[in-house]
Amino acid sequence: xxxxxxxxxxxxxxxxxxxxxxxxxxxxxxxxxxxxxxxxxxxxxxxxxxxxxxxxxxxxxxxxxxxxxxxxxxxxxxxxxxxxxxxxxxxxxxxxxxxxxxxxxxxxxxxxxxxxxxxxxxxxxxxxxxxxxxxxxxxxxxxxxxxxxxxxxxxxxxxxxxxxxxxxxxxxxxxxxxxxxxxxxxxxxxxxxxxxxxxxxxxxxxxxxxxxxxxxxxxxxxxxxxxxxxxxxxxxxxxxxxxxxxxxxxxxxxxxxxxxxxxxxxxxxxxxxxxxxxxxxxxxxxxxxxxxxxxxxxxxxxxxxxxxxxxxxx
Length: 314
Prior knowledge:
Helices cover about 40% and strands about 20% of the residues. It contains nine helices and ten strands. A hairpin with a 4-residue loop joins strand 1 and strand 2.
């Protein structure tokens, strides 16, 4: 390459500081001092001749140039780590082991993992779905010591994000809302206002997870009375309730991230602009170790960038 690139350590410092919006948290991740992070980023800005951050008394925000460059840089680090991992494959391939709640794995994670696997053919990705990964205090945690005893490198968890001894990155906030087939927006009992739900089957997601929303809470928020919130069909997985909604069997109350692909494809619609925001969220949990496998770190950065890009597009 004819253009001289900035030092790799400075680029790593910028990526971590931008992701955390904090020099202190970036320093903790990279095991250096906050002053070292600040010095690296100042050198990077001098090298490029542009400002990357707006530095306030209590806030650190990206400039337009920094925000534009961040996703490309994260993708570059992911590809670099994957290339190194592929070079090491001759000495024995180490799998990247993922675990996520079943409906999240099927509806949100799987399409993205498949795309990542296609872009990194030398990587052995193993995705498992487990209800054990749902909740605030589930026993299964990512392998903290690299021994492989827990069998998990990265886990998506739903709850409050409190997992002591692990690295925890917030993947996305969550809201629950009614979802149905577009066919239910027409006909004799078309869904035009929440009270019209009295003419339709209510589909319930009975998955056992923290702060699970139910129809009684949503109807109260919508100011609707006189509808039996307990009637309808019940499912033990959100994906089943959503599939029933796609088939026109009723109206599902489900978590919006699980329905994004169906909403984008027009298989589902949100008939009402009323949702229940939850305190719980999806988090990406991994081992808090200095010698994290490059493939794990690359995938973690990529997945967080995917979620961030989706938020920005929304």
